[in-house]
Amino acid sequence: MSDLIHKSAAELAQLINSKQVSSVEVTSAFFDRSEKLNHKTFSYLHLNRENALAAAKLADQALAAGKVHSPLHGVPIAVKDVLVTKDAPTTAGSKILEGWMPQYDATVVVKLREAGLPILGKTNMDEFAMGSSTEYSAYGPSRNPWDLQRIPGGSGGGSSSAVAGRLAPLAIGSDTGGSIRYPAAVTGSVGTKPTYGAVSRYGVIALASSLDQIGPVTNTVLDAALLQDVISGHDAKDSTSLPNSLGSMAEAVRNADFKGLRVGVVKQLSSDGFQAGVSERFQDTISKLTANGVEIVEVDCPSFEYSVAAYYLILPAEASSNLAKYDSVRFGMRILPEGNPTIERVMAATREAGFGPEVKRRIILGTYALSSGYYDAYYGSAQKVRTLIQQDLAKAFAKVDVLLTPTAPTTAFKIGEKVNDPLAMYLNDIATIPANLAGIPGISVPNGLAKEDGLPSGVQILAPAMQDAQAYRVAALIENLYKAEWGDYLISQAPDLEALNV
């Protein structure tokens, strides 16, 4: 059954539905590989074979009774450890939540269970989703299956490395400033940030509530579309949940064509500051689209220049508020200092021991930005820039159907290379941040290997809010353009994990 790990989720679902293979067999195949190789990629913080196989058995029994709960029925999935799960620990990659067992499931997890997808385990991540490399996980970094000495992106590097390394056919990630799309780009995977509110955030450990969004990490665009169809929809438990359906993403993928397509290239995100090989792959994508009759239009988004600065004021401000609940009283770690353990001293000791350096850095920055006398100068000004970015995007989408940018400025860098340089780390998200500030959908699709290092590069498709189907349409077209060059899976070019040493 080892060949099962190389099939797409859609192919696995078809095999399961036709009863050529069982969900138990598919789930076991991915568990066998994960238990053998997770020590190399460190994709998972927690694996649960017993629960996953029990869910797979239920999926097989439902199928035998003629009940198929979704197009992905029986296909196993990995879940980022930022979503609460009542049958597995949820830590958000932090020591302050080590061993915490929630009493309920996140809405997305409920939807996965109801759709018949066995959950393989919880994936590694930067602590509280603060990072671009998974090096800020309190439990150690995940590694890129293409080169185990390199990062798999962040904050969802566990999900991207699991999918790219064939330790899971599907994964769930969270995207606050690029934490699904950036890891997808550097691991040769597909990653989607849906429109803000399209997927419920109930039961998601919040980083920045106005920016966070849950989405798919997969090996193909169709797999991502099928997964978004499963997890999206209105949720009364989430006050920011969109009331209306955005339609079928899978249908948009299956019916994709080039007819009348206008694609905008953002002037500010086309060449300067990007690795030569990444820029070359981006120009290659544009050339392929042009050869297929797509109209390419350069668009100007001048406020993008300030997006990183605005983002790193808005995010820390919201994070400092969201993380105030970790006070040693209600749940999580509690450290009792020597002497007189007042509540203030217990709280200080617990947060000192439980939070890592990046979390502390952002809490301090956010608290400062919200403080009296500085609120308008920093947080207020950042929100004004956010409005300008939304206006720039609205003007651009009046001219084109979608926007196209490189997803990341470079390919995967080496572990340790930027961990002590916060500014360099923050700039990894330069192309992905605008989508979160504007609440629009974005998808990263592999577009080849950079010439300098032979590592994956990705191209990002941005669409107007609630037009996720349009983004999927273009993502599918780009994926098909590269299939002739790379075969069905770009990641099949990657080195064999079993032959690599950490």
UniProtKB/TrEMBL annotation:
One of its GO terms (cellular component) is mitochondrion. It catalyses: L-glutamyl-tRNA(Gln) + L-glutamine + ATP + H2O = L-glutaminyl-tRNA(Gln) + L-glutamate + ADP + phosphate + H(+). Keywords: ATP-binding, Ligase, Nucleotide-binding, Protein biosynthesis. The keyword Metal-binding does not apply. One of its GO terms (molecular function) is ATP binding. GO terms for biological process: translation. InterPro entries: Amidase, Amidase_CS, Amidase_dom, AS_sf, GatA. Residues 25-470 form the Amidase domain. Signal peptide: none annotated. PROSITE patterns: AMIDASES. Belongs to the amidase family. GatA subfamily. This is glutaminyl-tRNA synthase (glutamine-hydrolyzing). It comes from freshwater metagenome.
